[in-house]
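Lab notebook, bench 4. The sequencing result for the construct came back, and we need a structural model before the next group meeting so we can plan mutations. Quick request posted to the team channel:

Model the 3D structure of this chain.
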Amino acid sequence: MNRRKFFDLLVQSLAITGVSAITLAGLFPALFSKKRSIHKVVLGTEEELFSDNSYIIKHIDQQTFIIKKGKDGSIEAFDAACTHAGCPVQWNDSKNSFLCKCHGGVFDANGSPVSGPPKKPLNKVNLMKRNQTQEIILYLDNSHS
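Done. Here's the predicted structure in token form:
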């Protein structure tokens, strides 16, 4: 086999391998994507969580979350990482906003950017209140970690 024929076979083999990989990825996307799982974390009852404050900070799986109770009684949870550079944000009860001290980012009570460099809102985390026990449950999706 001469050199030219060898390289022709090599190029053809690489092309077939590439097309096969693309076809497999299209037919079986689960094989090529990150596994996604959602797990729940029971935080406690509303009375236990908010007995002294209108918000709590929870550290779960190397992530920090701010769970706050609104003036209307609603409860929301946010990932405490600023969407600009990932610095930790803090809830400021008196200003009714989230503050990021790294670059001066400010988010309103709904997590939307108000001033500073952040352009995207804070990541909201799914939350539910169990009717019978009144427990607050946080649902974490590992595909964002």
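The chain has three helices and ten strands.
Will bring this to the meeting.
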